Amino acid sequence: MNLLVIFIGAALINNFVLQQFLGICPFVGVSKKVDSAFSMGMATTFVMVISAMATWLIYNLILVPFELQILQYVAFILVIASLVQFVEMFIKKVSKPLYDALGIFLPLITTNCAILGLALTAVLKEYNFMETLIYGIGAGIGFTMALVIMAGIREELELVDVPKSFQGAAITMIVAGSLALAFMGFAGII
Amino acid sequence: MDIQSILIAAGSMGGLGLLFAVILAIANKKLHVEEDPRVTEIMGVIPGANCGGCGYPGCSAFADAVVKGNAPVNGCPVGGADVAALVAKIMGVEVSVTEKEVAQCQCQGGMEEIAYQGEYQGAQSCIAATLVSGGKKLCEFGCLGLGDCAAACKFGAIVISENRLPVVDPEKCVACGECVDVCPRDLMELHPLSHRTKVLCKNHDIGRYATKVCTKSCIACGACERKCPFDAIHVIDNLATIDYEKCKHCGLCATVCPTKAIEHIKKPRKPKPTPSPIEEVDK
Description:
heterodimer, A: mainly alpha, B: Alpha-Beta Plaits
């Protein structure tokens, strides 16, 4: 039950993009097509889950025994950067078109604050390994969901006659804001 | 703070880094992707300045596009004809030699020539000065001389002279077009070296006013238009404009221009054209 609460909490109620405003860069950058938004979400989810586990292990097995908690930022960024590098190689090997579609945003997962935010919050909330894992999956699913919803809306927007002064970035911001408002409705379901 | 805790910190972080490095090194071997070797070869011959002059977001993107056939082999303006020939050789095609272009400021209104409307002490940037009623110079078409073009040039080809005008070093200029984009008054233009006659003024004011703002402005007198034997120069909207399709670069217009707004360079800068690199490739 506790795990379910953590999962829903991370995915919906405290959605990393729409409620905590972390990882806005890919949220705006890679949300033009549902396909690439979903792939980006999956890549980020993968990095999130693996990095959540790796950072938990490093924090509890290395940093805590040596009393080096102060170095958590350095250690976590090290883990995340290496993982992103790995994911980049993997995607390039498995699917070149996807690699091209994600473009610069793939290496930019490194600087996606949602991932570092996830690792740091998991430490802050003193989750155990299982809880951290679920928290990571929830956060990843929530991130993917936000990206896909945004991409879906923006695909529809292509067909709409947007007033000239609202075209481009302006209407995207309005959509993002409305989405964040809508997600506030999830507050209090647990 | 004792030395031991520093060692532990350094050791554990270093160890982690090493561990990830090893994992990534193995992954790099296992997940190695066979790329078209031509991409790497093209990357080897193009300048690699990532200036974006070709319209692609970097040299590797350009190399990719060339191999896929989306970009022309001579698409790199920085490399010029030499690089185009090398890229063409890698791709196994021929390329028509494009003439080297050089940027030039189309204004001669320096500190000595121009009239002033006041003092400008704001940010030393042309774009900033444009926002404040156009800086200190009275001419609203002329060079502001604050050096946005020189700052934009990634190749150090533009220096601002004593007279507060940009001077382009034709040897260093690679015609990437950065200065053309950045100039708020659209004064920087790319011209092939063969364009030896140029109207170095952009002032569209009527003659009476144009003489007041600058001593080297085009006053739309029409002397050049009457003198030109080839019907190549016309005063359009109070400014002499050369039609390079017709211009034979005889220089007559420059001799009659009362304000010396027309520049004419007598001989080509390179008297003997260097042998085309394509011929070398064919050998």
